[in-house]
């Protein structure tokens, strides 16, 4: 039975999830499980494992997917508990580390402005564009990430070179920069040797032997295994060689390469010959017969290390570095017994395949299905190959795959020797020797019991300063029965000795070399010189544990908690990446619009009949304004239809509900969005000619906005009620409330300054959408003395003041008109990708952005979640309605939840932490803050300002809107209050249109 849980937008790095999967698979009752992110590549792994369920198939790349095969449904609870415990432990460790964590490039560079290196360990299918962003920001790159196309590698390395930067990788497993170990790295003593390596474990083996010989490293520059291919042309190798040649503390240059393209190999040798510093090089797969000019050529990784140390110490290079083994085989294994290599290190496997093939004339190494050698029963396997690591941790991290292969090969009668490596260092298993020793002992005992000869021969790649303890690991494997040697090459020689084959090396002389290209050695770029001469400042993009070695040895780091942009949507990622190339001009346009938001000066100046200020309501044809983007009667939901019926009764177009409904269905009434008329309306938003509207003037340029007044609570038109009580209240508001307020406002020169009132009320616990109590009382404080001064009848004064005192939400509609006056002023700058309108009509949610003027981008509206009045549930709720999302558009409402913790019961457990988390989340999709409206409970930061569609689409975070909830049937009114999320599709459509406007395909 397969059970699936999808945790939306819960990104975790792949290594953590692989380790978690192993822990889950060890639980009683779990037949098998897989926990991975919902990428396309991972879905293939789920499918191949027989674990792809419909829920997993539908997951997004930013979703964590848990699939469990179990005979018991109860096991899933145990799995979820274990998952939560595992991830919580990670979180505690990260908090304890004091590591600063960010979620985007801008924040990373703000936190570490002098960063000079980006370290990537993200899924390869998404990494190339991120590397390009790092290069465009002037950062050198170390890419642990693999599965990057060869075409992208060539393009990005050429770009890096042109910018004077260095791209190390992709698939760069190890490195040392200024003695700082990076990624899977051993801890080497500082010294005067600089390594350039198109091989991760090759660097580790040479560096570890150098360390044990008493030498030390200053740099080990990984380049990725394809750098010396004909397509890449050794771009990074060449730049690194030039950098080390001009790096004063480097006395010896050491080059390590997997089998290179011949022509590229010759270019590299040509470059090395021009260096003034001594050079040692190994091109794995070659068996050199002599040295070339200034370049000493090695056959094995061990010999490479010995030559480098001699050169570093100023000693002459010996003709032969082969030293005798402390082992003598008196009874060689019979011919049918073979040597098997089971390696976690790809380069060490290559070295084993090369030497065994040379000794037995097996035709050379291969590269197929993880095999390095596969001939006549002699198998050497790189268990770190992609074929073995899909959905599983690398064998340097987890021994499971290697243990399975040890059991498989150790049980074969033909197996005489199993060669293996044990990799130590940062990033590796904390006790690989302890994990391998039991299986070695088990298989040796089993072979002995069966009367078979079997040997395990291995080496440990590591130093005495590695976290795992080199000497302890070496001895533990020896105590388990393995024959241990001090290098991989010596272990291979010993395995051949067990077969009766004595390994030899011919003496090597130096032969002259004529440089083919006599152009001078290039000069290193200033950026490369700076990288090699300072302690690196690193933005770590991906696996958090890589920070450990960096920080332990003195590097400054910031953790970039990367997850796929746009939920992994490849089209959106492409558009965002193209926009990122123009970010300077886009950011400048956004800043211009933000300035208009900030400089707005909204004043409440009047209350008038709508028809006196909205020309569209004076047409011969009956007309109603509604909330949201354009909509027809056929698509209106119950509450909006109810509001239309109430408006028809109010205007006298009909005397009964039936007459009003017939009129509205006949097509005689024209419907226009409030937003098309400088107006806004709450919930249904219905505004008719004779309704009273608030008039807010933005004195920055006299932009004017209108909104009907708040009716109070209970049965009200905005929620679709249309009884006689509702109609009578509307008449009173038009005939008495509006005129009284208008007279009062005329006594206040210039009107009431709303920005000041809002600034005051936000400090008193309002967020201006769900909670307006402080603002409504402050408004009453401002307007009551003015009302008293008017010549209005005393009874009318009392009724108006009492209504304002009773109507806690009165200021909501004032805030809406305020927001409309601000965005309509800001919209006059038509260049930015800032959201200028958010609204909903019960059928669709609509947004507008600066650069696209009046164009609407719509998607189906969501239904709110929240608290319901007694007797009602979410089943009764209508999808969201209203122009009141103008509040969130200008940064209040749900965007400013932290200002009003009292309303968080609508969105979570009801604590202050919920409010803080929401505002922090909303901050991530905004450009800036509004210093006019500061929030004491948010360390006096201003409200969020400027929702940027790039940020919304990139993060998948959509604005949270506080809202009332209407019954889905007309006439029943409000049934609760809560929150709703804007649909992402609106912002994706806006992004596409914005890109089209900029000419981005």
Brief account:
By secondary structure, this protein is of the alpha/beta class. The protein folds into six domains: 2-97, 2-Layer Sandwich (Alpha-Beta Plaits), CATH 3.30.70; 99-171 and 534-563, NAD(P)-binding Rossmann-like Domain (Rossmann fold); 174-322 and 505-524, Succinyl-CoA synthetase domains (Rossmann fold); 338-500, Rossmann fold, CATH 3.40.50; 603-762 and 772-813, Enterococcus faecalis V583 fold, CATH 3.90.1710.10; 826-997, v583 fold (Alpha-Beta Complex), CATH 3.90.1700. The longest helix is centred in the first third of the chain and has 23 residues, at 75-97.
Please characterize this protein's 3D structure.
By secondary structure, the protein is an alpha/beta fold. It folds into six domains: 2-97, Alpha-Beta Plaits (2-Layer Sandwich); 99-171 and 534-563, 3-Layer(aba) Sandwich (Rossmann fold); 174-322 and 505-524, 3-Layer(aba) Sandwich (Rossmann fold); 338-500, Succinyl-CoA synthetase domains (Rossmann fold, 3-Layer(aba) Sandwich), CATH 3.40.50; 603-762 and 772-813, Enterococcus faecalis V583 domain (Enterococcus faecalis V583 fold, Alpha-Beta Complex), CATH 3.90.1710; 826-997, v583 fold, CATH 3.90.1700. Helix 21 packs across helix 28, helix 22 (638-651) crosses helix 23 and helix 25 (754-762) crosses helix 26 (773-789). The model has no long low-confidence stretch (mean pLDDT 92).
């Amino acid at each position: 039975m397969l059970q699936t849980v999808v945790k939306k937008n819960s990104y975790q790095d792949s290594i953590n999830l692989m380790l978690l999967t192993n822990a889950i698979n060890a639980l009683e009752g779990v037949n098998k499980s897989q926990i991975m992110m919902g990428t396309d590549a991972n879905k293939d792994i789920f499918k191949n494992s027989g674990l792809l369920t419909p829920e997993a198939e539908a997951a997004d790349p930013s979703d964590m997917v848990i699939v469990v095969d179990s005979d018991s449904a109860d096991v899933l609870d145990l799995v979820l508990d274990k998952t939560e415990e595992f991830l919580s432990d990670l979180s505690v460790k990260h908090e304890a580390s004091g590591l600063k964590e960010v979620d985007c490039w801008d924040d990373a560079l703000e936190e570490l402005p002098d960063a000079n290196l980006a370290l990537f360990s993200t899924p390869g299918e998404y990494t190339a564009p991120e590397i390009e962003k790092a290069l465009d920001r002037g950062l050198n790159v170390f890419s642990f990430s693999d599965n990057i196309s060869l075409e992208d590698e060539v393009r990005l390395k050429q770009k890096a070179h042109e910018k004077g930067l260095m791209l190390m990788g992709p698939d760069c497993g190890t490195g040392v920069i200024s003695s700082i170990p990076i990624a899977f790295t051993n801890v080497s003593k500082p010294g005067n040797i600089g390594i350039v390596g198109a091989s991760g474990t090759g660097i580790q083996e040479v560096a570890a032997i150098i360390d044990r010989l008493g030498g030390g490293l200053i740099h080990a520059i990984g380049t990725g295994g394809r750098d010396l291919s004909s397509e890449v042309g050794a771009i990074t190798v060449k730049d690194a060689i030039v950098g080390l040649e001009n790096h004063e503390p480097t006395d010896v240059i050491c080059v390590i390469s997997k089998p290179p393209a011949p022509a590229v190999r010759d270019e590299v040798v040509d470059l090395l010959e021009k260096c003034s510093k001594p050079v040692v090089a190994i091109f794995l797969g070659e068996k050199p017969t002599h040295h070339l000019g200034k370049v000493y050529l090695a056959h094995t990784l061990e010999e490479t290390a010995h030559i480098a140390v001699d050169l570093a110490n100023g000693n002459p290079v010996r003709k032969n570095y082969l030293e005798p083994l402390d082992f003598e085989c008196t009874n060689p294994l019979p011919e049918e017994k073979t040597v098997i290599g089971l390696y976690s290190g790809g380069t060490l496997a290559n070295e084993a395949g090369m030497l065994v093939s040379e000794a037995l004339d097996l035709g050379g190494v291969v590269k197929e299905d993880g095999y390095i050698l596969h001939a006549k029963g002699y198998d050497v396997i790189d268990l770190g190959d992609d074929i073995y690591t899909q959905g599983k941790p690398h064998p340097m991290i987890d021994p499971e795959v290697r243990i399975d292969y040890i059991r498989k090969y150790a049980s074969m009668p033909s197996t005489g020797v199993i060669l293996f490596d044990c990799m130590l260092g940062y990033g590796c298993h904390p006790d690989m020797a302890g994990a391998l020793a039991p299986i070695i002992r088990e298989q040796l005992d089993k072979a002995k019991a069966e009367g078979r000869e079997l040997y395990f021969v291995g080496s440990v790649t590591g130093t005495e300063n590695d976290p795992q303890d080199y000497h302890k690991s070496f001895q533990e494997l020896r105590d388990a029965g393995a024959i241990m040697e001090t290098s991989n090459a010596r272990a291979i020689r010993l395995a051949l000795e067990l077969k009766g084959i004595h390994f030899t090396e011919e003496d090597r002389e130096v032969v002259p070399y004529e440089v083919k290209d006599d152009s001078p050695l290039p000069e290193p770029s200033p950026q490369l010189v700076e990288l090699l001469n300072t302690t690196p400042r690193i933005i770590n993009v991906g696996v958090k544990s890589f920070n450990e070695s960096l920080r332990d040895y003195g590097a400054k780091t910031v953790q970039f908690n990367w997850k796929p942009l746009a939920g992994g949507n490849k089209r959106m990622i492409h558009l965002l990446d193209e926009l990122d190339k123009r970010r300077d001009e886009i950011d400048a346009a956004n800043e211009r619009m933000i300035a208009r938001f900030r400089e707005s000066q909204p004043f409440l100046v009047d209350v008038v009949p709508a028809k006196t200020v909205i020309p569209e309501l004076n047409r011969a044809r009956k007309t109603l304004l509604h909330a949201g983007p354009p909509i027809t009667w056929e698509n209106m939901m119950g509450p909006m239809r109810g509001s239309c019926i109430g408006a028809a009764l109010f205007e006298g177009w009909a005397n009964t509900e039936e007459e009003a409904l017939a009129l509205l269905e006949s097509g005689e009434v024209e419907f226009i969005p409030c937003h098309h008329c400088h107006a806004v309306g709450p919930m249904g938003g219905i505004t008719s000619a004779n309704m009273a509207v608030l008039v807010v003037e933005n004195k920055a340029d006299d932009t004017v906005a209108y909104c009907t007044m708040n009716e109070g609570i209970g049965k009200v038109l905005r929620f679709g009620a249309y009884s006689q009580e509702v109609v009578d209240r509307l008449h009173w508001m038009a005939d008495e409330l509006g005129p009284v307020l208008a007279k009062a406002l005329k006594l206040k020169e210039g009107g009431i300054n709303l920005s000041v009132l809002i600034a005051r009320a936000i400090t008193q616990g309002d967020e201006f959408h769900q909670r307006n109590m402080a603002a409504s009382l402050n408004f009453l404080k401002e307007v009551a003395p003015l009302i008293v001064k008017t010549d209005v009848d005393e009874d009318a004064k009392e009724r108006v003041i009492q209504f304002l005192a009773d109507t806690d939400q009165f200021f909501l509609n004032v805030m809406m008109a305020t927001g409309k006056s601000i965005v309509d002023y800001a919209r006059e700058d038509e260049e930015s990708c800032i959201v200028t309108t958010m609204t909903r009509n019960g059928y669709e949610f609509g947004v507008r952005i600066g650069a696209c003027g009046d164009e609407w981008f719509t998607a189906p509206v969501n239904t709110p979640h929240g608290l319901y009045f007694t007797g009602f549930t979410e089943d009764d709720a209508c999808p969201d309605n209203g122009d009141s999302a103008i509040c969130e558009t200008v940064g209040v409402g749900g965007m400013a939840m932290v200002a009003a913790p009292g309303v968080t019961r609508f969105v979570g457990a009801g604590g202050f932490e919920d409010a803080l988390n929401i505002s922090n989340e909303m901050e991530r999709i905004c450009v800036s803050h509004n210093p006019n409206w500061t929030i004491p409970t948010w360390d006096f930061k201003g409200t969020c300002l400027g929702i940027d569609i790039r940020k919304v689409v990139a993060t998948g975070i959509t604005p949270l809107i506080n809202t009332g909830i209407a019954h889905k049937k007309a006439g029943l009114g409000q049934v609760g209050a809560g929150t709703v999320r804007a649909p992402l599709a609106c912002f994706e459509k806006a992004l596409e249109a914005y890109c089209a406007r900029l000419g981005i395909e």
